[in-house]
Amino acid sequence: MAGTEARHVIELVDVLKRYQSGEETVDALKGVDFHADRGEMVTIIGPSGSGKSTMLNMIGLLDSPTSGTVRLEGKDVTEFSEDELTEERRNGIGFVFQDFHLLPMLTAVENVELPSMWDTSVDRHERAIDLLERVGLGNRLDHTPRQLSGGQQQRVAIARALVNEPDIVLADEPTGNLDQDTGRTILDELTRLKEEENIAIVCVTHDEQLMEYSDRVVNLVDGVIQE
Amino acid sequence: MSIEEWLWRFPSALMAWRNLGRNRARTALAALGIVIGVVAIASLGMAGASIQYSTNQELGGLANQVTITAGEDNPERALTESQVREIRSLVTDADVVPQKTGVTTIDAEGESDRVSVTGVTQASALYDTQVGEVPDQLRSGALVSASVADEFGLELGDPIEYGGQLYRIRGILEAQQGFGGGASVVLPVSALSEQEYYSTVTVVAEDGAAAEVVADRIETQVNGREEILSVTTLASVQESINSLTNTLNLALIGIGSISLVVAAVSILNVMLMSTIERRGEIGVLRAVGIRRGEVLRMILTEAGFLGVIGGVVGAVAALGVGLLLNQVLFNDPTLVFEWASMRYLLFGFVFAVVASLLSGLYPAWKAANERPVETLRG
Q1: Of A39, A101, B167, B171, whose Cβ has the fewest other Cβ atoms within 10 Å?
Q2: What are phi and psi of A46, to 5 degrees?
Q3: Where in chain B are the domains?
Q4: Record: contact A95-B287, CB cut-off 8 A
Q5: Inter-chain CB proximity A106 and B18 less than 8 Å
Q6: CATH number of the domain at A10-226, out of 3.40.190.290, 3.40.50.300, 3.90.226.10, 1.20.120.530?
Q7: Which tens digits make up the pLDDT trace of B7-28?
Q8: Is residue B185 predicted with pLDDT exceeding 90?
Q9: pLDDT of amino acid B179
Q10: Share of chain B above pLDDT 70, in %
């Protein structure tokens, strides 16, 4: 009964991704089915080379599958052009990276506003300040990344991921460059914000600790999801 | 409102400004290349304008004159009253100055020499004095050239003898610019009344072009098949000198442009390097939803800023060079503010900005079109 079925925030259906390198063709993803819903944190684990990053790129609309279907909020985005995908990313998806990837010449609040910077239709300044206050950086608004610790930088990055009120936040090893305690506080923040903002969070990690926070863990081995 | 607050309304400009601020030494060096290019192009242009100005100065006093003498077929070998009247009737918009010429001997301080004498009434149309004054109508007294005054030690009030009459010197003429032709002694035309006819009629027109028109008109109206009057003008000489200096100017600017092209290539290099260094960062921008066009604009704005900064500093420096040049050559630094010079500053500035933007185009396009998934993986 398709009509009553809850719509997934993100959905991959039978996604195959084939890379051509020289003579060799490599199938990084071999028919993957995946979905995530609002209010849940899904963690993708797997050994390196298993296709985790490729899968995250598919979910993040950074790359298109060779075959299969990608749906964002029930909308088929598989055939979208790069410009259309950019639009979807801007409005619907937040990113948190292992290396934080804040722009060094912008202050904390400017970094948070970055995704909407060119957008004259909305002013995200108030929301950026609000988000930074909620992650405990209300007194660091005008600090540059260099003046912040790793944990603080990652919290700025989380605020940046949320500034455009996305449906889903993707985190690529969000605790990978942080010590255990800092990693724990970051995961606490993420979990809390997931509830507050009612979003889906998809993480890719090696970190055992992260799995404690997950509602669901997906194990990817060799481009195939193991149940 | 601070610059930063103002820039916030132009995100591309804000980002570009901050990016340039990240590596000030590199930014300064890239801009320096542009500064040198603008100084080269504008200084050479202004030098050319100065050459043009000074040749015009040399010729300027004469190019607007038409000199009319008796032609080959003139029975009198001189210009009659009626011919002068005819010239006057043809030339309504310029001064017509008939002259008689003679020769006299001056004796002073033991020196004795023969000098040419010009008899003219409207002396002020032809001559300027360095000492004393030229009356509109020369009815009495005499004017002598600086070289004659020098040679014979003559001063204002000294007498000059001609045709048994004495004339008091009331003015010493400015050294004649350009080609010879200057009078040694100028007397009222009445002094040469023993001559019936005029030797020369000079028409002083507004400028070289007007002189050409007058010359043509006299040539066609008076001279039929016979050359009654010989009409000469320096306007055509000036024209060819002008075209020569124009060519020289173009060559100078061409040389200057090369240095600006070199500067543009160095901007291309700097922008390419900095966008390659920032690949990951640009990938993040693209990932979080910044459009390709916005990345393109940001990097293009960086290149544009380099051009504007270099262009402004270069134009100011070139203005200094121009002031110095005009001070040294003409003793008048303000000549640089003439449009003939100023336009090279404008040209240098515009060239700098355009060249920088063109240099930024490829790096900007390249950065904007890289796929974020590749750049993020680094």
Answers
A1: A39
A2: 160, 155
A3: 3-59+240-377, 95-203
A4: yes
A5: yes
A6: 3.40.50.300
A7: 667 888 889 999 999 889 999 9
A8: no
A9: 45
A10: 94
Cα(B276)–Cα(B270) distance, rounded to whole angstroms?
10
The CA–CA distances, whole Å, from B81 to B75, B94, B114, B280 equal: 14, 18, 28, 92
Give Cα separations from B155 to B149, B152, B172, B173, B312 (angstroms). Answer: 7, 9, 8, 12, 54
Find residue A27's DSSP bridge partners. Answer: A18
Task: State the DSSP H helix or E strand holding residue B153, giving kind and residue range, or none if neither.
Answer: none
B335 Cβ neighbours under 8 A, 6+ residues apart = B50, B53, B326, B341
Tell me the shortest Cα–Cα distance from B336 to chain A, in angstroms. 42
Q: Find the helix or strand (DSSP H, E) in which A171 lies.
A: strand A168-172
Answer for the pair B310, B32: CB distance below 8 angstroms, yes or no: yes
Residue of chain A whose alpha carbon sits nearest to that of B295:
A118
**Shortest CA distance from B278: residue in chain A:** A103
Residues of chain A with pLDDT under 70: 1-6, 227
Angstrom distance (rounded) from CA B184 to CA B149: 9
Pinpoint the alpha helices (H) of chain B.
Answer: 3-7, 11-22, 24-63, 81-90, 123-126, 146-152, 208-222, 235-277, 279-287, 292-330, 339-369, 372-377
Q: What is the pLDDT of residues B86-127, one digit of tens each?
A: 888 888 888 888 888 888 887 776 778 888 888 888 888 888
Among residues A175, A163, A177, A159, which one has the least CA distance to residue A207?
A: A175
> Whole-angstrom Cα distance, residue B150 to residue B157?
15
Interface test with B, best of A101, A118, A142 (most B CBs within 10 A): A118
CB contact under 8 A, A117 and B291: no
Mean pLDDT of B276-285: 91
Written as one letter, the residue type at B180 is: G
Among A83, A91, A117, whose Cβ lies nearest the Cβ of B292? A83
Q: Select the residue from A61, A81, A101 to test the B interface by mutation, using most B Cβ atoms within 10 A.
A: A101
Name the one residue in this structure whose structure tokens are 């020769």. B103
Contact residues on chain A for B372, CB-CB shorter than 8 A: 62
Q: Is A166 on the interface with B (CB under 8 A)?
A: no
